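Reply to dn_fold:

You asked what the input looked like. This is it:
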Amino acid sequence: MITFLLAMPVLADELPDVVEHPMVQRYPGQELRWQTIDNYREFRLPVGPVTGYRHIDDWVDTEGRVTRTFYALEGSGRTWSEVYLNYRGAFEAEGFEILAEGSSEDRKGPAVGGRQWLEIYLRTNPAGTGGEVGTLAAGSSTSGGQGAFVATRDRAAGPVYVVVTVEQHAEDYIGTLVDIVEVERAETGLVAVDPEAIGRDLEEKGRVVLDGLYFDFDSPTLQPRSAEALGNIASYLDANPERAFYVVGHTDARGSLGYNRELSQARAQAVVDALVNDHGIARERLDAAGVGPLVPVFSNADDAGRERNRRVELVERL
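and this is what came back:
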């Protein structure tokens, strides 16, 4: 989780039933005023300056789960630059690589983070719903400076991208938009989970999706190409001998609940058996569990969603 060093109370939300992303803790004193969460959407990240009318040459094209959250900070006596620098420093401290950044007191010019850049970014990735986030695009006669950065970090489940934009909308109002794009590496089927990324995800979320495990169709039999992922999982377990885990199998929603729970249990058990028998992991450190289709992370209404819901996770056992 991204945290800030400045000790101030966090105000109560003005929106009911919001779900703040576990990766980010808001700047002290901010209120959450708007949020959208898309389980899957395409998203474009501008990583260069404006080069023409409503045009930027350099983009990162990505897709995945997108969480967009707008915060307001009112009457705090803080400046936009303080908020901006705290967010940037917090993400850098968590190992994020800054791909592009810029800030300006007058917002003029084509640079990253300026008014033209932000307009193109918001036009390319529209919010889709009304709300207070619109203040970013609206401007104000009392507006002050503005800044933005684009950052990325690799994780076991796939890379994550973050875009943070901060603007002084008025003398006593600072708006901050935090966009988080989580790319599902499992979609490509090319990269196995690695030990370092396993540790990062467990510390951040308490669980990790074990990418790179492949089963025969409608079967708990692990395919030979799962060997790399199993070896990396075993390396992490060897390096952390004091920790114990649940190995949890998931399926999509096609078929009966009973059958899917049995299949997910059998696949989780196959992973446990491989780690114990082939890699020497103590069996008492691993418990297999199958939950079938009961914990989807994407919609089961299409093939892409069903594919992502068929997964095995490692969850720490306390």
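The first strand starts at residue 31 and ends at 46.
Hope that clears it up.
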